[in-house]
Structures are given as structure tokens and as C-alpha cells.
Amino acid sequence: LTALGFDGVARAVSDHLDVKVPAVEVTAAGDRFDVALRDLDGDTFAAVVAALRSVPGRRWDAARKVNVVPARARRELWSALATALPPGAQITGPMGTRVVPPRAA
Q1: 20-49: per-residue pLDDT in tens?
Q2: What is the Cβ-side half-sphere exposure of residue 57, based on CA atoms within 13 angstroms?
Q3: I need a labelling partner for 5 at 20 to 30 A (CA). Which of 21, 33, 62, 99 fits?
Q4: pLDDT tens track for 4-16
Q5: Helix 74-84 to helix 42-53 angle, to the nearest 10 degrees?
């Protein structure tokens, strides 16, 4: 539903069914992106953190509990998230919500 643009309906169904979908929230904040991880299992969390560590200029902000990525590393950030997250995970960013597609066989 999210992939079709029905974010509100998808959220309502998800809340009603108490389904935990792995998600990453990316917020644009001037010359940086703040990346928050939520509802990730242990293996997925470790994979995403490892992928984020490869993004140039990334740092951890312990006070806000987000990864901070310089805006100039936008391409590397999206590439890292797309490869580390499992199919069906959501990436919510400045341009809306995207669902990670199934991997090609």
C-alpha cells in the first residue's frame, strides 16, 4: 500500500495488525541527513550499521540517537540502505516513503 502511495491506509493497517516493518527514517536537516533506525531485528540492525559505517563523513550523534550523514554523501547513503535492508523494509525520506524491492535472482 505504501508503494502505491497510500501511506495513511498502510499505517492504519499496520497499527491495527501490530505488524513491525523494518524502517529507516531519513530527515534532511540543512547540509546533513539524520538517519534513525526503528523496528530492525538484530541481524538487520548490524547489517545497516555496517553499511552506514562505509558512508563517508557519517557520525553517530548519541544525544539524538541518529546517524548524521553529510548531504554530499547522499548517493552513498541511499546505496548503503538499499543494499543492507531486507526486501519490504521502508525508507522514509524527504521525497516520501519507499519500500525496498525484492532482490533479483
Answers
A1: 678 899 999 899 999 999 888 899 999 999
A2: 14
A3: 33
A4: 888 888 878 777 7
A5: 150
Q: Give the Å distances, CA to CA, from 24 to 83, 105.
A: 13, 25
Task: Cell 527514517: give the residue.
Answer: 25
Confidence band of 105 (pLDDT split at 50, 70, 90): low
| Residue 55 burial by Cβ neighbours in a 10 Å radius (0-12, 13-18, 19+) | buried
Q: Which of 92, 84, 80 is nearest to 10 (CA)?
A: 92
Element counts in the chain: helices (H) and strands (E): 3, 6
**Using an 8 Å Cβ cutoff, are 86 and 44 in contact?**
yes
* Residue 52: partners with Cβ closer than 8 Å, 6 or more residues away: 35, 58, 67, 69, 77, 80, 81, 84
